[in-house]
C-alpha cells in the first residue's frame, strides 16, 4: 500500500491557481514544492485538509475565496504618481517594489499600470477579490526525517525532479 498524506509525511506536489470566472491559470509552479504535512502552514487550511489521506498520483481541486486568505482588496494600497518621480528601474509593468512603512514593516507593491505620464503600483495581493481553484497533483509521499520535520520541508539543496515526468520542449 502506498503512503498517504498525514502529519509528519514529506509531500511533493505541483499546483495551479485557476480563476473560477475566466478559467485562466493565474499561477503555476515551475518545480514541485515539498513540505512536511502538519509541520508548517505553507498551504491554506482548506487545501491542507483536502490533501489528508491522498497519495502519489492523486489530483485534487479546491475552491478558495482569496479574500479569506489575503483579506479583502484595499484601494488605499493603490498609488499613482507622475512617472518622473519613479526611478527608471521600476518603470515596467510587473516590477515589484518593496517599501517600508513608518513602523518598519515591509510591503511589496507591483507596478500594474503605466503610461507616458503616470505609473500605478498596487500593494494588494494579486489574488485579492478572486474566487479561484487550487488544482494540486501529489507527486510523492514518504516518511519525513526528523530534520525535515524540524525544518518543515526538504533539507536538500536542489529540487528532487523526477526526469521521467519531464516533458520535452
Helix content: 10-25%
Instruction: Please tell me the CATH architecture of the largest domain by its name.
Output: Roll
Structural classification:
mainly beta
**Uncertain regions: pLDDT < 50 for 5+ in a row?**
none
Taking Cα atoms only, what radius of gyration do you get, to the nearest Å? 19 Å
Quickly count the helices.
Answer: 3
Account of the 3D structure:
The protein is mainly β and 169 residues long. It has three helices and nine strands. The model has no long low-confidence stretch (mean pLDDT 89). The protein starts with 8 loop residues before the first strand and ends in an 18-residue tail after the last helix. It has two domains: 9-69 and 128-157, Chitinase A, domain 3 (Roll); 74-122, Thrombin, subunit H, CATH 2.40.10.330. 15% of the residues are buried. Strands 1, 2, 3, 4 and 9 form a five-stranded antiparallel sheet that branches. Strands 5-8-7-6 form a four-stranded antiparallel sheet, with no helix packed on it. Helices cover 11% and strands 37% of the residues.
Q: Summed up, what is this model?
A:
With 169 residues, the chain is mainly beta. The chain has helices at residues 45-51, 66-70, 146-151, and strands at residues 9-19, 25-28, 33-36, 59-65, 78-82, 96-100, 106-114, 118-122, 131-143.
Descriptors:
single chain, 169 residues, mainly beta, 4-stranded antiparallel β-sheet, 3 helices
Amino acid at each position: 500500500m502506498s503512503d498517504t498524506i498525514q502529519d509528519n509525511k514529506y509531500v511533493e506536489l505541483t499546483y495551479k491557481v485557476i480563476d473560477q470566472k475566466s478559467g485562466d491559470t493565474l499561477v503555476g509552479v515551475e518545480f514541485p514544492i515539498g513540505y512536511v504535512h502538519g509541520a508548517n502552514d505553507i498551504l491554506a487550511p482548506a487545501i491542507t485538509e483536502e490533501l489528508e489521506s491522498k497519495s502519489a498520483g492523486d489530483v485534487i481541486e479546491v475552491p478558495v475565496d482569496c479574500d479569506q486568505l489575503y483579506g479583502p482588496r484595499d484601494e488605499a494600497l493603490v498609488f499613482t504618481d507622475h512617472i518622473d518621480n519613479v526611478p527608471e528601474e521600476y518603470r515596467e509593468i510587473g516590477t515589484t517594489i518593496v517599501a517600508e512603512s513608518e513602523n518598519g514593516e515591509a510591503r511589496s507593491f507591483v507596478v500594474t499600470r503605466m503610461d507616458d505620464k503616470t505609473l500605478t503600483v498596487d500593494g494588494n495581493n494579486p489574488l485579492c477579490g478572486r474566487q479561484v481553484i487550487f488544482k494540486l497533483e501529489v507527486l510523492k509521499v514518504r516518511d519525513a526525517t526528523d530534520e525535515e520535520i524540524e525544518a518543515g520541508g526538504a533539507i536538500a539543496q536542489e529540487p528532487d525532479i523526477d526526469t521521467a515526468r519531464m516533458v520535452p520542449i
